[in-house]
Every structure is written in structure tokens, then in C-alpha cells.
Amino acid sequence: MEYLTNFASGFMKLFQTGGKTFIGWMSSIIPVVLLLLVLMNAIIAFVGDKKMAKLARASSKNPITRYLILPFVSAFMLGNPMAHSMGRFLPEYYKPSWYASIAQFCHTSNGVFPHINPSEYFIWLGIAQGIQKLGLNTMDLAIRYLLVGLIMNFIGGWITDFTTAYVCKQQGITLSKQVDIN
């Protein structure tokens, strides 16, 4: 009987801990994400969908702007997860590649720009602690991590273009590479 009581108690503790975590999110990350969403939508409303679509068309013309510059600017200005939403202005064909690039960038920039992905900053701090114990400079590692991340995110986005083309051909799907400005 004691075994069953301990199991039930532990089971309830799991949900109590989940509730505390949820309340913590309600007073920390959820308001920040909500306000970033409001800000981004306000900027888009102020600038206009047509101008945002023109920016997306200009950004989608080559892989460097599509998977190197736009993800960096989006992540730096909007942070994770709001940076993902900039992909809504890209043509359908490039959305899988955009996601591949931006999702990776939100992880590889924490050492230099912790505001991009604060929920994973503890991972960077764990790595940095080991580097500090070795007597090495953590900013050197952070910059290398950022630069390697930019290159790998660019490659990941571009490779996803090829896999998207392959899957589209295999499935007989045609996706537009143009942004609809109407």
C-alpha cells in the first residue's frame, strides 16, 4: 500500500512541478514573446505587407541573403522564437530551408548574443564554465561558435533547398519561388 501511495504522490508532484514551471513562464517568457509578437505585427502593419513581401523577394534572390543575412538580422532583432515568423514573407519553396537556417542560428549565437535564445543560455554557460576552468577566454569560443554557426546554418539552408527540390519532384509538387505581392 505504501508503494501505491508513494507512486500517487510522485505522480501528483510531477504535475505540481509542471504547474510551477507554467506559472514561471507566465511571468517571464510568455509576456516577452507576446510583446515581441505585438511589436513585429505593429512594424509589419506600419511598413505594410507589400513592402515586407518586396523585402522577402529581394532576400530570397540568392542563398547568401536568404540563409546568412536575413536569419542573422531576424534572430538579432526578434530573438527566438519570433525570428522564425519572418519566413512567412518568403516564397513557399524556401520556407523549409528558412526554418532549417533560422532554427540553427538561434542556437549558435548564444555566447555573443544571449538575448536571441535566453531559454538555452544555461547550455552556453555550462560550456563556458569548462572553458574558464581551462583558463581560456570564453569570448573567443563564443565568436568561433557564432562564425561556424553562420557558415553551417547557411550550408544547412542551402542543402535544404536541394532536398526540397528532390521531394517536390518525387511527389509531383510545384512550389512557387516568387513572393506574391498583391
TrEMBL record:
Keywords: Membrane, Transmembrane, Transmembrane helix. One of its GO terms (cellular component) is membrane. This is Sorbitol PTS, EIIC. One of its GO terms (biological process) is phosphoenolpyruvate-dependent sugar phosphotransferase system. The chain crosses the membrane at residues 22-47, 67-87, 142-168. It holds the Pfam family EII-GUT. It comes from the Bacteria.
